[in-house]
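Table S4 entry, Disintegrin and metalloproteinase domain-containing protein B.
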Amino acid sequence: MFLSRALAATLAAVALLTQSGTAHSTDRQPLRYVSRLEEPVIHTDANSRRVHAFSSFELSFILHNGRQKVRLSLAPNHDIISKDAVVHIMGADGKVRAIEPLDRLEHKIYQGQAFVLREGHNDWENVGWARVNIQRDGVHPIFEGAFRIDGDDHHIQTDETYRKTKQRADPEIEWSAEEYMVVWRDSDIGDGPHGHDGDDGPSQGELKKRNLSARSPLCSSDGLDFNADDSHPIYRGLDTRDLDSGMSVSGLPSELMRRQDQTQMGNGAGVNLASSVGSTIGCPTTRKVALLGVATDCTYGKQFNSSMAIRQNIIAQVNTASQVYESSFNISLGIQNLTISDNNCPAQATEQAPWNVDCGGGVTITDRLNLFSAWRGNFKDRNAFWTLLTTCNTDAAVGLAWLGQLCVEGSVKPGAGNTNETIAGANVVVKTSQEWQVIAHEIGHTFGAVHDCQAGTCADGTVTKQQCCPLSGNSCDAKGQFIMNPSTGSKITNFSPCTIGNICSAIGRNSVRSSCLASNRDVKTITGSQCGNGIVEAGEECDCGGPDGCKGNPCCDAKTCKLTSGSTCDFANEECCDRQCKFASAGTVCRASIGSCDPAETCSGTSGVCPNNAFAPNGQACGESGQNLACASGQCTSRNQQCKTLMGSLTTGNDTYACSNSGCQLSCASPEFGKDTCFTMMQNFLDGTACQGGGKCSNGACTGSSFAGEVGTWLTDNKNIVLPVACAVGGLVLLALLCCCWTAFARRKSRRLRKQKKKAAAAALAAKSSSSQKKQAMVSINEVPPPGWQPQGGAYGQNQRTMNGNLQAPPAAATRDYSRSPHNNGQWQPPQRQYTSARYA
């Protein structure tokens, strides 16, 4: 029995904190302090203070009125712009007016390390990473970016950018005829109404959603039905308290079912997030690149003076966000497509780009995500996902994303329960002063990351449902220290160990797709190879990342990017290369099997490249005989098995099973849930799982089904109805056949009896006829004239006999003449019987 969606929504608001497939972010709390960046200097080998897109150099400056000296060691980031990247300039009518290549030479995007010279010390100390976008070089450089000192992120902004993105309560900065830069830290974010609450952690800001109710989600992504599904592979768990609260299992709303569990399409159902804390198993062992598309709406462009300024800002934000993905997952972010909308917003939404409208007008951030997802679904590209940049927030929400939709092509409407949602690999980010952090947070949801646990979610059962990431296996509250915290706060700089395990394990079991992630091998950059950037480009034999990255690597010459003498490969970039810089022997496992449906990949012995990851065909039988298991996305499973994995912890006997063979949304039942009760969740079955009509599940939709197959599936799903009806109908048919047989037998017997009677009657009649003939014959004999009888006058007369007493035969017909006969107009008549007194001797 299923409750209506409206009732489900009501129960969701009362019973649980619901987290949706989209991540919602809100603006930060006010800053308490801002520092002016002083004495910036570019240090180059030629001391020219000039740099180009592929320069490596150092940048120094002073903060806090001369109290802190900072030096950034920088090199170009080649991952940030794809070699085939293009820019689409879109008009207000939604039509593309121009297509331009994204020229790497125009963008001075760098990455590197941050150093500080502490008071009383003579050596510079490495204290964190750095990402910088140089807008102007020379004697008076201007740049923006971010760097980290002792875990505290520092944000560099020009005075103009700061004024455009500052909050009303942020400190004012001085006006100057000359452009300058300021720096503020995450630790400078003040406490607010959503700040400290006992041990709840540091103050919360940027990612926090307005507190609409006591149990409303802190991130907008939690408000999406798709993400809020408890059965989403990311969450894989349910709160048994809900089963005892008087609310039927079937009544649990889809809003409670999150899609954030990165096991989105896999049988990761039932995964315990605490068990994978800190594990990187599943993440790539060599650098991969996630190519993305970025689009801006008409409101975003109004914040900049030129199209070039828009491009520079976008590239700078992605460059900074990429750092945390590189360090956590060995995955870089790179821009493949960039669509920039005209600054003039259309009066009405266009069919070509319905998401490109001005703020207000009843279009919420959720509406923008749905419209943008449908638009993104029209592109058959190989992008890992698309991001929409806007300035239109809804209340305090400044970010939204579908969960676990990495590498998902096209778009889909899940159907019942989600009729207004269009799911795709897409997210929306509102421009704020912490733009790159919001981008990193929302992309985290796209990669399948759930929010970190807080004191409230630890207490209300959210962690039990695997809907938030605990600090460790023994401690729940993450205390707001990490990027996937529902709201920003001080010193939020990294993904939590739980999030790292969450994403890596989901990728490893194919709950989150990774097939679109590009290799960094033989990458063709726009202007040729750059030795030392860690990317093996055309013309290079290896590239371990310069002197620092090549420490302990005997295979690659850091200066020439050539293999050292005697080396045939480099283990830093090749899975089939051993520590002696030789190809691993044939048969060496380079990618281990995770089950019978995922055969291990082995080295060929003649190459350093590990073969592509391959799975057994979906639908191939696996497991022990009688288990009815089949391969799906590299896992040996079934619909029932996935229900057992997801919900088995709720039952004492783990007797959970799938409600039917139809659909691709998890719907499970158990005798312990009640008769005819199904627990329907917003989590999907694994891609490749069998569905109605002989089809296979694909991203929550059943594809490849047929009418004949659907009939078969319906019969299978309704055995409790079909079997009794079939028995009854079969019995009636059998009875009818018996009746027909009996009737036919009776008729045949009746016909046989009638035939016998007819034969008997005919025989009697024949006998009677024979007797009559005999009598007639006797009569005929008596009528024969006596011997000697002769006719007189050519005609028979009465009493005429021959002398010997014999009758004389009448004359032949040809000679007789009856015309004159007195009898019957000349017709011959037998003579009348006449008897004499003569006696026969």
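The CA atoms of residues 205 and 503 lie 24 Å apart.
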